Amino acid sequence: MKINKKNYRTIWYDKKEDNVKIIDQTQLPHKLEIVSLKSLEDTLIAIKNMQVRGAPLIGATAAYGIYLAYRELSNKTKIYEASKKIKSTRPTAVNLFWAVDKMMKIIDLNLPFRETEKKLLNEANKLCEEDIQNCKKIGEFGFEIIKKISERKKEINVLTHCNAGWLATIDWGTATAPIYLAKKNNLNIHVWVDETRPRNQGALLTSYELNNENINNTVITDNTAGLLMQRKEIDLCIVGADRVTSNGHVANKIGTFLKALAAKEFNIPFYVAVPYSTIDWNIKNFKDIIIEERDESELKQIKGIDDSNKIRTINVYPSDSKVYNPAFDLTPNKFITNLITNKGVIRPNERDIIKLKNE
Ligand code: MRU
Questions:
Q1: Is 0.70 topped by the overall pTM?
Q2: Which atom of ligand 1 is nearest to 58's Cα?
Q3: Is 242 a catalytic residue?
Q4: What are the sequence ranges of the domains in the chain?
């Protein structure tokens, strides 16, 4: 999608420089900085420090990380240690583990080094292309839902939480793909963007990417959606996910669960847009999902840009206040209307989800 009218992806292999490029999301929306990943260490830092974030993009970065690790490690067996390191960067988005396992299947220590190296790069590139196709499919299926609402309403108001846009994937996004298609089809669409404390991915990333695509959007605090639902100013909610259990429970950015609860009260459809790679086939009980707990500085400090264009961080809390900062929450399937997947719109239950595996 576009930034300043130019098309970008969030990650790509740069053939000329023989490295991997990412958009550094810690600098957005203030600065557009492209960073090179040249090693395993660069990859670990990029994922841990959230230069890349969002479940599908974390997965894609991890895949390139295996490629970068393989080519720099003199002892080929060390790649297994590297894969463990990559898996330990962030615990909740299952795409990370899925991508590493997919890449590790390619490694055959009996093959010539160069052959495996080439195969790994091809696999990482392929994973990115497939993610884009999956997001496009999610877009097509989700668009039908929006189109139906447009038959009875002039303006369609969508609520989204965090960033499940193209910046969280390779292109298009999951929750935003139906919105981008609605805009392309000239539907009158407006997005309520949850600010998404503490890291403000909604305000800093979702609103930014929607602005760049000329999509009408308004940022609200995380506590505003209840009032808007009560006033019938939200027609549907679409969020992404970091992990979906095999029976349809959802882990997503902290605050998602409360939105789903409120939506149920007001009979507002609550959709979760997910590609196949976000489904954890090994977990049924959502309590088994590890919720990442992040540093207290994310609450106690705030980052912004000053008048001289410098990015600054300031302290906003009493330094001796205790804080608790879980990054994700869990939405039981009974609060979810349907999952919008790359294979269609399905019920969030085991019977329907398992079909995705078999098709
Ligand atoms: O902590 P983040 O920014 O990686 O969290 C991202 C989210 O929670 C997204 O909503 C989720 O990964 C879906 S991305 C298509």
A1: yes
A2: 4
A3: yes
A4: 2-130, 139-358
